[in-house]
Amino acid sequence: MNLEELSSLTQHALSDLSAADSVDRLEEVRISYLGRNGKLPEIMAGLKHVSPEDRPAFGKAANEFKLQVTQALKDRKDHLLSSAIPADALDVTLPGNTGFRGGNHPIRQIMLRVIDVFDRIGFTVATGPDVETVFNNFDALNTPADHPSRDEQDTFYLSDGTLLRTQTSPIQIRYMLENPPPVRIIAPGRAYRRDTPDATHSANFHQVEGLYVAHKVSMADLKGDLTHFAREILGKKTKIRFRPHFFPFTEPSVEVDFTCHVCKGKGCRVCKNSGWIEIAGAGMVDPKVYEAVGYDPDSTTGYAFGMGLERIAMILLEIDDIRRLYENDARFLRQFA
Ligand code: PHE
To answer: Which residues are near ligand 1 (CB < 6 Å)?
Structure first.
């Protein structure tokens, strides 16, 4: 190696060092130049082949090589360490970059909550098909032949004379046809009506049906159980009230209101200033229904109720338009997952 080669080696070493972008890489470069099998021992070993008159200059240059590389190494290392992110610059409380994991749809969430409340007081889940017979959906539920809900303008009929159930009440019929009393079921499912979709109507929606049939079941049981439900779902202080109503399959029939969970009954925008929110339809099962399913109408008593899950979801989750529940816009659904 001559002086010229040594000076170009020095340039190489310096440019390798300034290109090292990590402390580990820097160490590799150090070893390759200053290490035991590196360039420096090679230079020193070559010293004895240099002619005596050139030796002092070469020796000086070799020394210079070592000093320069050592200094550059130290400078580069200081630079790398000082520009690294200091430990206290990392905010571990910032949310991480996890992907969206999915979750239950709001309707399903509410359905599971309703089921859970009744499950804990002894109700079991019953289900039935969306396509029903006219018997299960209307006849057995004591709906007169000329009742407007049977109209083709309200009900989706299929070509074989079946229909898309307009309520979850046919599940009651199915269950009672197959099981003797006592009955205590909670029956969630889809229902279909020929409604024109708007902010509060959908042609396909969800209901939960409740049915408790035994002996000496009374209106007080209905009120007690629905009060329990109201408190579980809307809060401990929630009250309920019954308003007289009509359903073909219950007598007497009521509509059930819960005190508004937002204003606690004082009146606000959510309850349209009434202090009450209509939640369910209910009543004592009409003896005609017992006749239709082969129960003894004289010794059997029971209550039934039904409520719309969309309505409860919209109230609890403050959703302003029912259509948002069916558009499957991930940005919307993600808020509730
Ligand atoms: N099926 C009724 C409806 O869809 C609700 C209801 C169920 C009323 C059970 C009374 C008893 O409006």
So the answer is: 167, 169, 209, 247, 250, 281-283, 304-306
In this structure, the answer to whether residues 261 and 141 fall within a common structural domain is: yes
Q: Which residues pair with 301 in a beta bridge?
A: 214
Q: Give, for ligand 1, the residue of 207, 243, 310 to mutate: max count of ligand atoms closer than 8 Å to Cβ.
A: 207
Cα(236) to centroid(ligand 1), Å: 25
Residue nearest to atom 7 of ligand 1 (CA): 306
Instruction: Tell me which residue of 60, 79, 62 sits closest to 17, measured CA to CA.
Output: 79
Question: For residue 49, is it within any domain?
Answer: yes
Q: Which residues contact 80 (CB under 8 A, 6 or more apart)?
A: 20, 21, 22, 23, 26
Task: Give per-residue pLDDT as tens, 22-70.
Answer: 888 989 999 999 989 888 888 888 888 888 888 888 888 888 889 989 9
Instruction: Report if residue 100 sits inside a domain.
Output: no
Domain that holds residue 268: 106-336
- Count of structural domains within the chain: 2
Q: Which long-range contacts (CB under 8 A, 24 or more apart) does 297-300 make?
A: 299/215, 300/181, 300/213, 300/214, 300/215
Instruction: Show the CA angle centred on residue 251, arms to residues 203 and 227, nearest 5°.
Output: 75
Tokens of 209: 């049906």
Enter the DSSP assignment of 149. G
Please check whether residue 90 lies inside any domain of the structure.
no
